[in-house]
Amino acid sequence: MAEAREAAVKGYWVAQVRVHDRAGYTAYRAAAAAPIAAAGGRLLVLGGAPEVVAGQMAPETVIVVFPSLAAARACYHGPGYQATLALRDAAATVSLAIVAGHAG
């Protein structure tokens, strides 16, 4: 049943990002674009300066949508995206969650 749910709902990467090397982060984004696109991922939010109305957030938010939760997980854990993590981690501090879209 869990596998059917993973295929039936969209999957999202939701990230909070603190960039400390803009050029390095740009290089990471360029490297990550191909494996994300190959998994059907599409960038929805790539922004800075959030209007924080409760709690605390990092300066930038990134949201990527995938055709399914399984695709979001497979992309993150796949060799193509994993090969980009050294670039990402050298350029930014990232908190990232993979979440299921709402089925209703």
Automatic annotation (TrEMBL):
Superkingdom field: Bacteria
Signal peptide: none
InterPro entries, alphabetized: Dimeric_a/b-barrel (IPR011008), DUF1330 (IPR010753)
Name of this protein: DUF1330 domain-containing protein
DUF1330 domain span: 10-101
A Pfam family this chain is assigned to: DUF1330
SUPFAM superfamilies: Dimeric alpha+beta barrel
PANTHER family given in the database record: BLR0684 PROTEIN, PTHR41521
